[in-house]
Amino acid sequence: MQKDLFGFRIVEGLQKLDVDIKQSELNYHKKRVLVSKEFTFDASHHLHAYEGKCKNLHGHTYKVVFGISGFTDEIGLVIDFGDIKKIWKDEIEIYLDHRYLNETLPNMNTTAENMVVWIYEKMQMALTKHPIKEGTRLEFVRLFETPTSYAEAKREWMEVE
Predict the structure, then answer these.
(1) Closest to 38 measured CA to CA, from 12, 70, 21, 62
(2) Which of 25, 38, 48, 98 is catalytic?
(3) Where are the beta strands (DSSP E) in 46-87?
(4) Three-state secondary structure call for residue 107
(5) Is residue 2 predicted with pLDDT exceeding 60?
(6) What is the mean pLDDT of residues 120-137?
(7) What pLDDT, on the 0 to 100 scale, is given for residue 139?
(8) pTM reported for the whole predicted model
(9) What local confidence, expressed as pLDDT, does residue 11 receive?
(10) Would you call 98 a catalytic residue per the annotation?
(11) d(CA 103, CA 127)
(12) Distance CA 76, CA 79 (A)
């Protein structure tokens, strides 16, 4: 019996694998797909050789967006969002969140432009260490320093230049 509650149907039974859907139907296509995951972190920094407000110690709530593309596996996934989160937490965020970036990052001016390349390189290195499907690749990293200002590193720029 189907129950309706305010126009919504209440599902009585979950679809069952190999009863309602076959294993071979789990992957719908053979196309490249981009998945994206974003994170935030809070950090302080200042810029060297810069005449403006940012020469003074200050902080931001940064947002990082990763774009990873690949072909779906037998169950329809490119990469598990949880795996991206684990890489972020274990390999990258530890250097950034609630840190004084001028101390924790390599010697560089801690501009968004420098930081996004460092984050790209860290994620790229981490992805090569983790077992991921062939053809999966980091397409871009976007680093927002404010809600309306970001720097971006793209795969085609990082591989060529």
Answers:
(1) 62
(2) 98
(3) 58-71
(4) coil
(5) no
(6) 90
(7) 98
(8) 0.92
(9) 83
(10) yes
(11) 25
(12) 9
